[in-house]
TrEMBL record:
<dbReference type="InterPro" id="IPR051453">
    <property type="entry name" value="MBL_Glyoxalase_II"/>
</dbReference>
<dbReference type="GO" id="GO:0046872">
    <property type="term" value="F:metal ion binding"/>
</dbReference>
<keyword id="KW-0479">Metal-binding</keyword>
<dbReference type="InterPro" id="IPR001279">
    <property type="entry name" value="Metallo-B-lactamas"/>
</dbReference>
<keyword id="KW-0862">Zinc</keyword>
<dbReference type="GO" id="GO:0016787">
    <property type="term" value="F:hydrolase activity"/>
</dbReference>
<protein>
    <submittedName>
        <fullName>Glyoxylase-like metal-dependent hydrolase (Beta-lactamase superfamily II)</fullName>
    </submittedName>
</protein>
<dbReference type="InterPro" id="IPR036866">
    <property type="entry name" value="RibonucZ/Hydroxyglut_hydro"/>
</dbReference>
<feature type="domain" description="Metallo-beta-lactamase">
    <location>
        <begin position="13"/>
        <end position="192"/>
    </location>
</feature>
<keyword id="KW-0378">Hydrolase</keyword>
<dbReference type="Pfam" id="PF00753">
    <property type="entry name" value="Lactamase_B"/>
</dbReference>
């Protein structure tokens, strides 16, 4: 049995996710901050992380990457289009938060293309879903009927495209051609706010009307 939980972290409460099995092995999506508290919570519940998967490399999704990576000695996965972002405060936008910005070490593994990704006992279909950022990816986990989509699609909203490297048409194409093609009962685990479903967003999302 595989389950997941949402954990808002960091200065803007971006959603991290913990996907775990009956043995408490887990993958961590987008650990955005509060590294010590997040580590302690995982250890209290005997969660054993085996990898960090990043939907994209904006500051609010990567703030605890190195802390969690080092605490559990696990690798980080990131799309190749944002290979340099972890170490570049201008690209990850943390320069807008503090004078020095924020950096993390490079990813251990780069995601290239829309392949299947197996991490320990977990398997995902990767979808390239740019528009909010050029390397945004969504991880579809068929066993739980969940897509971990970062800041691509929200409940009644879509990701920002007014940030550097954002593009609204590209984002809408990503949503329409990738996420809305998933089964309608798929849960969308969003980067901010509550989860939703593909069906709900097809029917009710005002940004997607007319697609």
């Amino acid at each position: 049995m595989i389950n997941w939980k949402q954990v808002p972290l960091g200065p803007v409460q971006a959603n991290a996710y913990v996907l775990y099995n009956q043995d408490k092995e887990a993958v961590i999506f987008d650990p955005g901050g509060d590294g010590e508290a997040f580590q302690s919570a995982l250890q209290r519940e005997n969660i054993k992380p085996i990898a960090i998967l990043l939907t994209h490399a904006h500051f609010d999704h990567i703030g605890a990457v190195d802390h969690i990576r080092d605490a559990f000695n696990i690798p980080v996965y990131l799309h190749q289009a944002e290979e340099s972002w972890l170490s570049d405060p201008a690209k990850n936008l943390s320069i807008n938060m503090t004078p020095q910005g924020f950096t993390a070490r490079p990813a251990d593994h780069l995601i290239i293309g829309e392949n299947r990704l197996r991490v320990g006992p977990f398997e995902f279909q990767i979808y390239e879903t740019p528009g909010h950022s050029p390397g945004s990816v969504s991880f579809y986990h068929e066993e739980t009927s969940t897509v971990f989509s970062g800041d691509v699609l929200f409940q009644a909203g879509i990701g920002r495209t007014d940030l550097p490297y954002g593009d609204e048409k590209t984002l809408l194409d990503s949503i329409h051609l990738k996420l809305l093609e998933l089964p309608e009962d798929t849960t969308v685990a969003c980067g901010h706010g509550p989860e939703t479903t593909v069906a709900n967003e097809m029917d009710q999302n005002p940004f997607l009307s007319g697609l």
